[in-house]
Design goal:
By secondary structure, the protein is of the alpha+beta class. The protein is built from twelve helices and 13 strands.
């Protein structure tokens, strides 16, 4: 009797998987995003992907069940070293599969299992999944490696609750900067770029993405990009911040500060962006960093450490091992 029951469960499961069909369909993907505009995160929106994908192209899949679109998947396909790869676009923290029932682990497992049977073969894959996705076993069953990464997230709340979570030292920095700087909330890209470049120069680095990418992001209406500056009494900018947002979250996308900036200039801008998010009933996502000093800085605002999964794989086991050994698996 037990064996019969197990067989029935397996048959039901198999049938359930069979009626979940993924197909490549841009029109249906767009229609789903428009119908669920208040739920689909910014980074899955076609207009965002059109803005950030400069090399290669984006392909769009939808999952249908009983004739209804229930999930979407977007993939950035391009050539790298002459090989076809599936990668994250620059300045895009999360991508891949998304569904309204993203918190339902069993549902996500079914969706992912059927999706991975449909995706085209590539030599190399590297994707950062949405933080709402907890179960990555279907990826592992297909031979993907998994790395847990982290961001800091401040949940929508009233500002008094947010202020309670700010560490004392950071609070002092913000107060110090408030007495010396003013915030310009209507700055443009030309004001942001020199400060961003200056920040990378101070680290001995060049700008890791083309200026054209920032131009396209600022021009993307869906992103609701906002550039703010911290100005001294001479109207000289000490720090700049670029945020983008969707219906639920404001994202810390790009920032920069000049050498010898007034202490607290960047915390001042981030604090203003977080308070604005609170006023609008939105979360604030710092887009966390694995660099200790940056992660510590983000944590000082009282955000919740929030994990998300980075899944990656190459088509060749030897290459897979070599790439992992030399640290070339990156989200972008």
């Amino acid at each position: 009797m037990g064996m019969i029951k197990q067989s029935l469960v397996f048959a039901t499961k198999k049938c359930h998987l069979c009626i979940m069909v993924w197909k490549e369909d841009l029109a249906a993907y767009i229609q789903f995003c428009e119908a669920n505009a208040a739920s689909v995160p910014l980074f899955y929106q076609p207009s965002w992907l059109e803005a950030v994908i400069i090399n290669g192209s984006c392909r769009f899949w939808v999952a249908e069940k009983s004739g209804e679109t229930v999930a979407i998947f977007a993939g950035h396909y391009r050539k790298k070293y002459g090989l076809k790869v599936l990668l994250m676009p620059q300045l895009t923290p999360y991508m891949g599969i998304w569904t309204i029932r993203i918190q339902d682990d069993e549902w996500m497992r079914d969706l992912t299992t059927t999706l991975l049977q449909q995706l085209p073969s590539v030599f190399f894959t590297s994707l950062c999944l949405h933080p709402g996705i907890k179960d990555v076993m279907p990826w592992k069953w297909k031979g993907y490696q998994q790395q847990t990464r982290f961001t800091y997230l401040i949940k929508a709340a009233d500002k008094s609750e947010y202020h309670k979570g700010i560490q004392g030292k950071l609070h002092n920095h913000i107060k110090y900067a408030t007495e010396r700087l003013t915030i310009d909330t209507n700055a443009d890209l030309q004001a942001l770029l020199p400060l961003v470049k200056d920040s990378f120069t101070q680290q001995g680095l060049s700008l890791p993405y083309p200026e054209k990418l920032l131009e396209k992001i600022v021009a993307c209406k869906t992103a609701k990009a906002r550039i703010t500056l911290a100005l001294d009494h001479n109207h000289e900018a000490h720090a700049a911040l670029l945020t983008v947002e969707d219906a639920h979250t404001v994202y810390n996308l790009v920032s920069g500060r000049k050498n010898q900036a007034v202490r607290g200039a960047m915390p001042l801008l981030l604090n203003e962006a977080i308070e604005r998010a609170m006023d609008e009933g939105k979360n604030f996502d710092f887009e966390g960093s694995s660099i200790q000093r940056i992660a510590t800085f983000f944590a000082s605002f009282g955000g919740k450490l929030t994990p998300f999964h980075h899944v990656y794989r190459s088509a060749n086991r030897l290459t897979d091992a070599i790439i992992a050994l030399i640290g070339k698996y990156k989200a972008q």
